[in-house]
Amino acid sequence: MLAKMAWRNLWRHKRRSLLTLLSIAFGGFLAILFTALQDRSFADFIDTAARLGSGHVTIQHPEYLETPTLNRTVQLTGQIRNLPERDRLVLHVTERITGQAIVATANDSFGVVFIAYDPARETEGTLTFGEGLIEGEMFKTANDRGIILGTKLAQNLGAGLGNKVVYTMTDRNGEIVSGMARLTGVIETGAPSLDQGLCLVPISALREVLNYGPNEATQIGIFLSDSRRSSLVASNLNRELGPDSTALTWDEVQPDLSAFIAMKVGGARFMEILIAILVAAGIFNTLFVSVMERVREFGIMVAIGYSAGQLFRLVMWESLWLALTGLAACGALTIWPYYYLSQHGIDFSQLVGGQDMEIAGVGFSPVVRVGIFPEHLIVIVLAIVAATLAAGLYPAWKAGKVEPVESISLV
């Protein structure tokens, strides 16, 4: 009975109730889209960084993070290679050799970061460079004798397809070693720092130059179905690994990117809290005015036998109806814009003048889409209900404190 009465009371002043419902719906709309934009953008950003780098979880020498030299290596054991079969979160495992080198042609020489990989052990989900190939072709096997350069680096070196390129580095013993290859491909990653300072080489060819073993590498990249599970997978691996290797999460390997994301998440959370406070203030105003307008009515209800607890529950039911109806309106308001933005997104390429966009060495697409994690949607829904009920606590308490003799005498 109290629920039915509360529903009817809600529509005594239709315009006021509709305005309150609109504020709830619009606040939820903003919270969902802000969160969905953040979730999709950062998830894509982390996945791109993992594909450009060494995975969502990286196994490497304990000292490699601070001093990434080529004498700090790890062995790819069969146990690690079988991770995808043992852990449903792991999609793929691959080994890579990374470091610094000097590449030179007859025209010039430059310092670069190199990545050596095995094409047979990479997929579209682990290596993103193939998407940026603008000339030539990617490696077909780990024994190829070619080299692939970033587009700006190839221009600076004056290198064309088929030209000889010499790469020089220090091996595990500190000795200077060199390899020679012909330019077989040019890539454009969208990150200017990579395009002017990155080269790719086949891993077996580089192992010969560095005198590495057949399973030896500087990093083992582990790619997951959900980057948020990186800490769990790394923790499980560290219990199995020996003292000569350690598992690190993507945010430990790429602290600049992690700091940028943390800063953006903090800003978004502040905006969401501010929106929640403004919406709760509007709901409080509506419920409080509604209670004060019905003081005489509440006095009569007490006089005919209603208890203070029943009046409190009546107003709280009104708060709950506001929350549930506001959520329904929020869903109706959000569903089409969310679908459109998840499929088509917003293209910011004209705003940046067609220039490449890069953050912490990772290029990202100017087309921004949305996609919210289910648990974040649940949190938003619960937050809206909790804020609405909290806004009704004081008006409900006020209704329960009505004195029948004094209130009935009011005109």
List the helices and strands and how they pair.
Blueprint: H1 2-10, H2 14-52, E1 57-60, E2 74-75, H3 78-81, H4 83-86, E3 90-104, E4 109-117, E5 133-136, E6 146-150, H5 151-157, E7 164-170, E8 176-187, H6 192-195, E9 198-202, H7 203-210, E10 216-217, E11 219-224, H8 230-238, E12 246-249, H9 250-253, H10 255-293, H11 295-303, H12 308-343, E13 346-347, E14 358-359, E15 362-363, E16 367-368, H13 374-400, H14 404-408
Parallel strand pairs: 4-9, 6-8
Antiparallel strand pairs: 1-11, 1-12, 2-10, 3-4, 3-7, 3-11, 5-8, 6-9, 7-8, 13-16, 14-15
Q: H/E series, N to C? A: HHEEHHEEEEHEEHEHEEHEHHHHEEEEHH
Rg measurement, Å: 31 Å
Mean pLDDT: 81
Q: Uncertain regions: pLDDT < 50 for 5+ in a row?
A: none
Please indicate the count of domains.
2
**Backbone structural class:** alpha+beta
Tell me the number of strands.
Answer: 16
